[in-house]
Amino acid sequence: MKAASRPIKLLIVDDHPVVRAGLSSMLAMHGEIEVMDAVATCADALRRIGQEAPDIILLDLRMPGMDGVAFLELPAETRKKARVIVLTSYERDEEIYRAVQAGAQGYLTKDASEDEMVSAILRVHEGRRVIPPHIAARLADRLMRSTLTAREIEILKILAEGLTNRQIGKRLSISENTVRNHVKSLLDKLEVADRTEAATIAIRRGIIQMDQ
Questions:
Q1: CA torsion, points 110, 20, 95, 44, in degrees to nearest 10?
Q2: Which domains does the chain possess?
């Protein structure tokens, strides 16, 4: 892997101060990387990009306000076509899928080693995609599964609260029969036998997040 002709301008976006400081300090020791800034929110990132274009953005997924996936879904011109590596504590299938579908060129977890992180930055800067094998396997599995509709995800989240079909229908102003059809469809797509298993699988995969 050849070194870049000039330092790679890196923008770190993470809402945890300790993570920002640690990554900045660690990566600044590598001559091929220039940490141009480390900011706490996607809004701050957009303002910083307006001042200076980065080559690579190291992006956390879960942040207050605009999250990482929403940032990735913005037009590429908004981030001056910088390539994005997602760096997160989470390995939930749906979050991996959404981030890659939205345009992330790399996906690393925060327990990645320094060498892995530097290698990923260099490779993504060369135009390559960096996804660890175990995450790539899960992504392939996710791509083979049928995609839930927005309405099915909405019903799934309410279902996870323990509501009946009638209660779900009342909340969404749709008939109980319509809810029943949606529930049957999402059970089939998730390949599960009952509502409890559907909720458990959905939370584990990151399809729904009950803390939001």
A1: -170
A2: 8-143 (3.40.50.2300), 150-205 (1.10.10.10)
